[in-house]
Structures are given as structure tokens and as C-alpha cells.
């Protein structure tokens, strides 16, 4: 069994921080998102999962989650090429997903403007300066620096549905990373029979191994074959979706800021008028 005293620099091991530290390196992340996924100003796709574990001893309901199972919570930020930029694991399943995210070092630096994001810029053909941001789903708070979909049902071909399609398409990066990990590291396919601290070690080991295997073209091709994804779909995703031990975060409605809504509206207009994809009207 892998235990903490067998791992050199144990506390460093439990952190995976590959996030850029300069505006120039963030711009490189954004460039790849725009080139590969047609989503400008995106600095990473954010998602989280409840990693199901056995009922821990003497913890009461601390790890009991909204699905009536026990779990530790994993948050990850992923770039356009399926690499982890940031991973945080080990949050108690009982805590609201938003509460766990707010306790992450990434969030704390985000709200304090300590991540050295590039300065806002205008998009081609548009007038308003748009900040750089992360993208997430309904589980996260909607802010100037974290874009999420329009809620509710919208008419086919509307700018809201087009925006949601484009954001969902870009977010496949982080969803597919979870699919890749569970396909290869099958410990993620069923509840871990481990105490929370050891489950955290396993999750972080998987994250480190994932990035290591992605570094060279040889290991990356073996680890993540091209046919692992449904490439014919406009929403490419891992074809093996066996993630029974990875539960989605709970969606919690949150009131957005007025400026965040203005930014999203500007992006929606841009996707419709200035940078449409050939097939987007068929799927939005």
C-alpha cells in the first residue's frame, strides 16, 4: 500500500500546480484553446468530481455527499491539449461543491487577481474589451473570470444555444481527461476501499502520471490513442464513459454579476456574427 512516509516530498506530491505564472504563458494557453476549440480568451477548462470511497471510520457524515455515498472531491483545471494545469483533491464530500472550490488555492488567487492573467482585449470585429477567463459548468459561480453556460432552455439557433454549444465543446477537454484517466487507471471505476487520505494520494498519483505520460509523443499515443475519442462528433468525447466512481458536482444556482453577463453576451454575439463554425447551427 502506498503510504505517505514512502513518498519523498509528500506534501509537494499532493499538489499539482502547473499553472502559468506570466501573462505571456497564459496567452499561450489561450492561443491553443482558440486554435483547437474555437474559444477565444479561454485559460483553462474547470471541472470537478466526487471520487467515491468506502465509508470512513469515525468520521460521521463528513464525507457523505448529495448522492448518499461517501467521497472526496477532486477539482481540476485542464488546458486545450488534455494536460492538467491544476489539481486539488481530498475535499470532504459533505461540503458544498462551491465551498470546496472556494477553499482551493486556485480560487483564492483568482479572486485576489494574483494569477497574472493577460490584460483584457477586444475580439475581432467587436468593440468591448473582454477579459481572459476559465470556463466551467453550472456547478461553479459565474463571474468575470469564470464563464459558464446560459441556464434554461433556448430556441434552436439562438445566440444562447450557440454560446452553450461552443462552451460545451471547449469543456470537453476536462471531461475527456476524466474519461481517459478512468479508462486507464481502473481504480477510478469503482469505490475505493481506502480511507480519505490514501484515496487522495491515489488520485494525485493518477494526475501526476497522466501529465507524465502526455509529455512524449510515444507514451502519449499509447496512453491516449486517437480512436479513444469520437472524432466525428462536433463534441469530441472519450468513447469509453465508464466512470461509475466519479460523480458530477451538484449544480447550484448562483446569481451572476452584471459585468459577467455583459461579457458572456459579447462572446455570444461574437460566436454568432464574427466567428461562426460551419456546423454550429445544426447542433445549437
From TrEMBL:
GO cellular component, one term: nucleus
Domain of life: Eukaryota
Keyword Transmembrane listed: no
A molecular-function term among this protein's GO annotations: metal ion binding
Principal cellular location given in the protein's record: nucleus
Residue ranges occupied by any DDE Tnp4 domain in the UniProt entry: 46-211
Keywords: Hydrolase, Metal-binding, Nuclease, Nucleus
Cellular compartment(s): Nucleus
Names of required cofactors: a divalent metal cation
Endpoints of the signal sequence: none
UniProt family annotation: Belongs to the HARBI1 family.
Name this protein carries in UniProt: DDE Tnp4 domain-containing protein
Organism of origin: Acanthoscelides obtectus (Bean weevil)
